[in-house]
């Protein structure tokens, strides 16, 4: 239903933030993973029609969204990465204002606003000025406004920034409760946020698509290539220069280092189960020696 064909984005300073991107999305949760500057927000802004591709075409239900974006915008819920709110309004006032902008019938909007306030645990602050909210509470208002119109396509750019662990879990549950026929695209660097909820992962690096695949495919591609062994702190620098390293855990007896490598890095190294974080580190690292199969 959402099709991205040969899309590139060159900014006015001639910098290419996205090169020749191709994706076909139908339904379900899609996790956009990539380092800072990978081009996640650039892609999301173009899908949300707030920015135009320099080349290529994005279609929704078969129509070019940059020729006529009305249909897409009607079906869209969007949380931009930097989401500004009006500090003098309360949550309820702000959400009513957004509902009016979206052309939602006010009676319907009021019911929906009270549902969303509940879902996002904002009851206690619903009638207080947003200016006095914590960062995580403001973020939850941003999530709520994106869901006001029961959108068919939802774009969340870094939705979990500033959320505490309970609220992150609540957000994951909220995503999982949304119907499966919606397209939900969410970007994050917190790999665990998409590990459980995203059916598919778009992994990107330096504006290029590395893979669009299922979680399991990414994990399978690293099978047998993730290792751990105990080492000393003095060895770490060398190891990091030589290998792609993941988590390093300090123990009484030394440091347990996690390495992603096609060959066994040391005789005592043992194979461990790959995680999505390993895949992210491996495929976005300049050191990797091969492409995903
Ligand atoms: N308006 C702009 N003009 C010029 N370059 C830009 C502009 N917006 C973004 N860029 C550049 O494009 C690249 C991609 O930026 P983008 O914001 O899409 O990355 P991102 O993956 O969302 O990163 P982050 O994880 O930090 O949010 C970056 O190198 C950025 O500096
Ligand atoms: Mg971004």
A few lines on this structure:
The protein has 293 residues and is of the alpha/beta class. The chain folds into two domains: 215 residues, P-loop containing nucleotide triphosphate hydrolases (Rossmann fold), CATH 3.40.50; 50 residues. It has ten helices and 14 strands.
Provide structural commentary.
The structure is a single chain. The protein is of the alpha/beta class. It folds into 2 domains: 2-216, Rossmann fold; 224-273. Helices cover 31% and strands 29% of the residues. The strands form 3 sheets. It has a 6-stranded mixed beta sheet, sandwiched between helices. A hairpin with a 2-residue loop joins strand 4 (55-60) and strand 5. Helix 3 (91-101) packs across helix 4 (106-119). The radius of gyration is 21 Å and the shape is globular. The two termini are 26 Å apart. The mean pLDDT is 92. The structure holds adenosine-5'-triphosphate and magnesium ion (MG). Magnesium ion (MG) is lined by residues 40-41, 81, 157.
Question: Helices and strands in order, then pairings?
Answer:
Blueprint: E1 2-10, E2 16-25, E3 28-33, H1 40-47, E4 55-60, E5 63-64, H2 70-75, E6 76-79, H3 91-101, H4 106-119, H5 135-146, E7 153-157, H6 165-177, E8 183-188, H7 191-195, E9 200-205, E10 208-214, H8 215-221, E11 226-231, H9 236-242, E12 244-251, E13 254-260, E14 270-271, H10 276-283
Parallel strand pairs: 3-8, 3-9, 6-7, 7-8
Antiparallel strand pairs: 1-2, 1-4, 4-5, 9-10, 11-13, 11-14, 12-13
Bound molecules: adenosine-5'-triphosphate (ATP) and magnesium ion.
Adenosine-5'-triphosphate (ATP) is lined by residues 11, 13, 15, 17, 34, 36-42, 81.
Domain ABC transporter: 2-231
Keywords: ATP-binding, Nucleotide-binding, Transport
Protein name: ABC transporter ATP-binding protein
């Amino acid at each position: 239903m959402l099709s991205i064909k040969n899309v590139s984005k060159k900014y006015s300073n001639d910098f290419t933030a996205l090169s020749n991107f191709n994706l076909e999305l139908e339904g379900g949760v899609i996790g956009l993973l990539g380092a800072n500057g990978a081009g996640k927000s650039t892609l999301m802004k173009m899908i949300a029609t707030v920015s135009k591709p320099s080349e290529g075409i994005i279609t929704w239900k078969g129509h070019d969204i940059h020729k006529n974006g009305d249909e897409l915008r009607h079906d869209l819920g969007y949380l931009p990465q930097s989401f500004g709110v009006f500090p003098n309004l309360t949550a309820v006032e702000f959400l009513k204002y957004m509902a009016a902008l979206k052309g939602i019938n006010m009676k319907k909007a009021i019911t929906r606003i009270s549902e969303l306030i509940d879902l996002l645990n904002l009851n206690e602050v619903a009638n207080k000025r947003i200016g006095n909210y914590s960062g995580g509470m403001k973020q939850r208002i941003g999530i709520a406004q994106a869901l006001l119109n029961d959108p068919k396509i939802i774009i969340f750019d870094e939705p979990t920034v500033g959320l505490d662990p309970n609220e992150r879990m609540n957000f994951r549950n909220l995503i999982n409760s949304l119907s499966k026929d919606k397209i939900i695209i969410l970007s994050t660097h917190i790999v665990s946020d998409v590990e459980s909820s995203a059916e598919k992962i778009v992994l990107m690096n330096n504006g290029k698509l590395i893979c669009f695949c299922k979680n399991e495919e990414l994990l399978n591609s690293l099978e047998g290539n993730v290792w751990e062994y105990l080492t000393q702190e003095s060895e770490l620098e060398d190891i990091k220069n030589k290998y792609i390293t993941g988590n390093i855990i300090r123990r009484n007896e030394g440091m347990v280092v996690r390495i992603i490598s096609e060959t066994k890095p040391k005789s005592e190294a043992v194979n461990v189960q790959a995680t999505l974080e390993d895949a992210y580190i491996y495929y976005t690292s300049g050191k990797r020696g091969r492409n995903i199969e």
